[in-house]
Amino acid sequence: MKAKRIIIFVLSIFVFLGAILLFKSLLVKNDGSDTSNEKNSSKKTEASAYSGVNIVSEVFDETTFHIAIHYPKFKDEQLNQGIADYVSESKQNFLNEVKNNKEFLKENIAELNISFNIYPVIDNVYSIVFSNESYVVGANGTQSTKVFLVDIHNNQYIQQTAILNDNEQNRDKIYELLRNAFEQSEQYSLYFFKEDLKNWIEDEDNHFSNMYLTDKSVVFKFNEYEVTAGAAGTPEISIPFDQFKEFLTDEWKNKLAVEVEPDHQTVPPKVNNGEDSEKPSDKGASTGGKRVALTFDDGPHPKNTEKILKLLDKYNAKATFFMLGNRVDFYPNIVKDIASKGHELGNHTWSHKDLTTLSNDEVKKEVKQTNEAILKAVGEYPTVFRPPYGAINDRVDEVSGMPATLWTIDTLDWKSHDPKAILSIVKENVKDGSVILMHDIHATTVEALEPVLKFLKEEGYECVTVSNI
Ligand code: NI
C-alpha cells in the first residue's frame, strides 16, 4: 500500500514537471522576439519600416567561426521559401568550407555575413538585394550578391524577363548601355573588362537575374570578378527608368510610368526641424569627478534600444550608440530618439563587415553610406566611428576618414547573455575614463543595464558620451 502511494506521488511529480515544461515551451514559442536559448546563437524576428516585411537576424558565435545573417520574412510561406533556400545554401557552403579548413582555423576565425538592402519599387513590390560575404582562410574573403524581386500582394517572385523584353536586339543595346556606364564610371572604369561583360550578356542562363528596380531606376548588380577586377568589389550600374524605357515590357512600362514622377529627387534632410531644438547637451558639463562612457553597438533595435534610452534617462546618464547603417535605414525614428535625448551618434559601418578585408572603395562606401543614413534620419552626421570587431589597420584608419573609437572594457554581453556576468566584468575593470562595450540588440544586455547604472552611480561615476571622456 505504501509503495503504491510513493509510486503515485512520484508519477504525479513527473506529470507536474511535464506540465511546467510544456507551459514554458509554449511561452517561448509565443514570444517571437526572443526565440533563442542557446548561448552562442540567437534568432530574432522584428518588424521593419516596410509594411508586410519582417526582418530575421540569426547570429552564431562559435570558437572557429562567426555567422551573422539578416533576411526578410513575409507573411506568405511560399514566398519565404525561396529566400530561406538561398540563405541555408549559403550557410551550408560556408560550414563545409569551415570543415574542410579546420586545421587552418586555430588562429583565424572564419566569418559569414549575409545582409540585405530593401528597395520599395511600387506598391507591394520590393527589390531585395543580398550581399553575401565570407572569409575562411587566405588573404581575401569572397563576396557575392543575389537579387529577389518580390510581389507581396500576389505572393510571388517577379522574373526579370517579365520586366524587360529579353531578345537579341535588346541584349546588344543593353550591352552598349552598360559598357558605356562602366567606361564612364570613375569608380569602375579602371577595373572593367568589356569582354567579360560581352560574355555575361550572351550567357543563355543569365536572363538578367542580377537586375533589380528601385523607385527611380533599373539597377544591374554584378558579382565580384564577374565583369571587373576584384578591386571593384560587387559593382552596380544604375539606369534611370526614362533611359531604359524602350526595353521594358508594356506591362511594366505602365506600372513604372504611373509611379514615376519626372525628376523626382530624394528630399534633402532638414538640418533642424525646430522640434528637437531643446536638445539637452552635456558638453562641457564637467564635474571633475570620475567618468565612464557606456557604448552600445550594432543597433538600433526597435524594442531594446528604446528600453535602454528610458533607463539612461532614469539615471541621468549619457551614452554613445554605434549604429549599423542598414538598421538606421530600417528604424530612423529610434535614431531620432537617441539624438533628441542628447546621446552621441556613432557610425558602426553599413553592414558590419571586417573592414580590413575590404577594398578602399568598399571601406569608404561602408562608412559614407552610414553617415548619410544617419544624416537623413536626424539631420546631423555621427561624430564618432567604431569599426566592427575593432578590426582596424593603418589603411582602414586612413581611408575611413574618421578616427576609430574602440573600448577599454568588453562586457562580452554578446557571448554570455548573462546580466550577472556583465555586471561583474564592469565591477572588476571599471576606472576613471573607461569605455564600456555593450550591444543594444540583446535583451539580456537591457536586463544588465540597470544594475550596471546603479553600481556606477553608487561608485560616483558620471556616465558621459565617448567624446566627453
Ligand atoms: Ni559590432
From TrEMBL:
UniProt keyword annotation of Metal-binding present: yes
Region annotation (Disordered) ranges: 259-299
Source species, domain of life: Bacteria
Membrane-spanning parts: 7-27
Species name: Ureibacillus galli
InterPro entries: DUF3298, Glyco_hydro/deAcase_b/a-brl, NODB_dom, PdaC/RsiV-like_sf, Polysacc_deacetylase_ArnD
Name of the protein in question: Polysaccharide deacetylase family protein
PROSITE patterns: NODB
Stretches assigned to the NodB homology domain: 290-464
Keyword line: Hydrolase, Membrane, Metal-binding, Transmembrane, Transmembrane helix
Entry keyword Nucleotide-binding: no
